[in-house]
Each structure stands twice: as C-alpha cells, then as structure tokens.
Design goal:
Blueprint (H helix, E strand, L loop, with lengths): L24 H45 L17
C-alpha cells in the first residue's frame, strides 16, 4: 500500500472548507449594490432626513433616558420588599 504525503498545495484538502459570504463574488456584488443604494437614498432624501432631525432628537433622548433610568430599580419586576436576601 502506498502512502501519499499531503502538502498544503494539494487541491483536494480545501474541498470541504467554505469561504465567508463576503469573500464570494455574490457577497461582493451585494456590498456594492448596498453601497450604491445607500448613496442614492442619501442624495434623494437628505432634505427629508435633515428636516425631521429636530423632531427625532427629543424622541431618541426620551427613549434613551427611559432605558437607562430603569436600571436603578431592577426593571418592572414584581419583587416584594419583605424577602430576606441573606
């Protein structure tokens, strides 16, 4: 029986290895498409987004305050005060 030495240049060793999606041609094409679509959306709708910004900032501040202020008392759980925590 003959023994074969497998080197790293053997093309049969990489058959089961999958490449990440972004390094495939389809992944690259998707990234390019999303970049071009993002540029077109920004150019066409910039006035609408910037016009709504003064209205969105207070809303985002309120959401952020609600999220961070509820950390102090443990959330909305129904914990009673008579429990012994020893």
């Amino acid at each position: 029986m003959a023994h074969h030495k497998h080197d790293s240049i053997d093309p049969n060793l990489d058959e089961g290895v999958r490449r990440p999606f972004l390094s495939t041609p389809a992944g690259f094409a998707l990234c390019v498409f999303l970049a071009v679509a993002g540029v077109f959306l920004w150019v066409e709708h910039r006035a609408h987004v910037l016009g709504a910004l003064p209205l969105l900032l207070p809303l985002l501040i309120c959401i952020g305050m609600h999220f961070f202020m509820h950390r102090g008392h443990g959330g909305h759980g129904g914990q009673s005060g008579d429990r012994d925590d020893r």
